[in-house]
Structure formats: C-alpha cells, structure tokens
Description:
Layout: E1 2-7, H1 28-41, E2 44-49, H2 52-58, H3 60-73, E3 82-85, E4 96-99, H4 102-105, H5 107-130, H6 136-139, H7 145-154, H8 165-172, H9 179-198, E5 202-210, E6 213-221, E7 224-228
Parallel strand pairs: 3-4
Antiparallel strand pairs: 1-2, 5-6, 6-7
Helix pairs in contact: 1-5, 2-3
Amino acid sequence: MVAGAVVLPDGFTAPWLTGVRDSKQLSPRQRDTLFSRIQESGIAWASGVVSSQEVDSLGIVPATRKAMLMAVQQLPTQPDFLLIDALPLSQSGTPFKAIVKGDQRCLSIAAGSIVAKVTRDRIMIEEDVRYPGYAFAINKGYPTRAHMEHLQRLGPCPIHRRSFAPVRDLLDGGIVRDAHNTRLGELGEKAARGYIERTGFTVLDTNFHCPYGEVDIIALEGDSLVFLEVKTRSSNALG
C-alpha cells in the first residue's frame, strides 16, 4: 500500500501541468515524466509505504490512512492544510478537506497519485527480482489473468496479501506455502549446472538421493569426482 503527498507552489503554472491527472489514466512513460517534473518543481513530495502484512493485520482502510499519514509526516515542508482523496485524516492534526474522486478533481491530489503509483511500480520491479516467476515487473502485483495463473502455479509468495480472496482460497486449499522457494531452488540448480558445464565440468547426475540425504549435483573435473550443494537466494544485492 503506497500513498503520495505533494506540495505545489501557490499559483504555480507550467505547460506540463495540463498532463497531470488521475494516475490510472496515464501511461507508465507519462507517469515517469510527470513524476520527474513534480520532483523538480514541487515544494515538497513524499510517499508512505505500508507492507502487505500490515494491510492484512489492519485492514484496507486503516492501512490506507496509515500510508497517507506517513506520506504527510515525511514531507520536508509541512503543509497548513490537506486536500485528501476521499478519506478523512484527522490523525494528522492538520486541517483538511476530503474530496470524493479527488484525484480527478484536484491538481495536487492527482500529483500525489502519480507519486504513489510510480513509487509502487518501482517497488514491484524490485520485488520481481526477489520473487521471480510472478512477473511483478509487468503486472505490478495487480490480479491480471496472467498473474492469477502464476499464483495458481507457484502458490503465494511472502508479499502476497493473505486476506486477498484468491490467495486466501489457495492457502485454505492446502497449497504448499514454500512453493516459491522450491521453484527458486530449481532455477538456481539449473543456473549452477549451466555455469559449471561452461567452466569444464562434466555433470554426471543431479538431485541424487541416498540414505543420508541428497546431492544437488555430482560432476567430474578431470580425475576428480565433485559433489556440489547449491543454495539459491534472490535480492537486489545479489542480482
């Protein structure tokens, strides 16, 4: 859950402002361009991020309010008055007006929605590295048909909301929770095998089972028999 807050200069005008509207009505390229303009020209901007676990714990509306409050609190310049999309935010301690469909009717709210959407999309691109197989970089975590097919095939990963009905139904139906890790391990072993073959090893067997456990890869290097254990991790740091 991501919320955005933007403070624009009083009376500010610029040609690009005519393109600012509800982020859902813009293409990814348009959003990225406008996000850069907002960063350059706005007095202040910030985003608030609430994890999927917190959304499950708090519920959608309280989690939304928490993300909005975080965004406001992280503004380097605190506003005197808040214009908010639909939800009242008395917790902020700042006078406010909640506007229904505010991202369609108010320039600063629309700008905030662009900040939120771009921030969220970039987070999902990073999560695609951590959790390959779900195409998060493409579907951005929204329940597209392809995403639902990936979910059915792999099972939920740690960032899927457990309170989201399709995820809840899968878990209630006995889907193995570590399906993602199993798939990730398979990809890691395939990558490791390709690497050692390119460096001159001859692979004799994979996933060899014996009474004492399992050997991921058994290979030959010259006259030496080599046993390899493969550990797979995904993160931005590791690539």
